[in-house]
Amino acid sequence: MGLLKKIFTWWEGATIGTALHSWRKGRFVAEDSAGNRYYESKKAPRRRWVIYAGGNDASNVPAEWHGWLHQTVEDVPDQSLPSAREWEAPYSANMTGTGAAYRPAGALESGGKRAGASGDYEAWSPS
Questions:
Q1: CA distances (Å), 17 to each of 21, 25, 114, in order?
Q2: pLDDT tens for residues 7-47?
Q3: Looking at the whole model, is its pTM more than 0.85?
Q4: What SS3 class is residue 13?
Q5: How far apart are the first and last CA of the chain?
Q6: What residues does each domain of the chain span?
Q7: Mapping DSSP to helix (H, G, I), strand (E, B) and coil, where does residue 58 land?
């Protein structure tokens, strides 16, 4: 089933057509920490694309690689950007719509109740 799945599905990684295109007409550039592989066309005009390590979700691409894909940054981010600062959090994908999504206190999904107004709000009234 693995080969048929690769031929006919696009939502779980690259199809065979994309993999062949990357092999024949693309030049491997780099791989990010999540395992996504980035390619650039060998001929002009330069086109850039990514083959995702997991499911095809654009939020799995870190910001610096997003800039490279859209040709905002010319150099490969791994080589041109400074190393991460100690206070920077590691990249995480967008979890909206999943069980790991952020739900603040009072959100309907978390079953909470909103906190009452604190009394520091004064309604505006025209004079």
A1: 6, 12, 51
A2: 666 556 666 667 666 677 788 999 988 889 999 988 888 88
A3: no
A4: coil
A5: 73
A6: 2-81
A7: helix
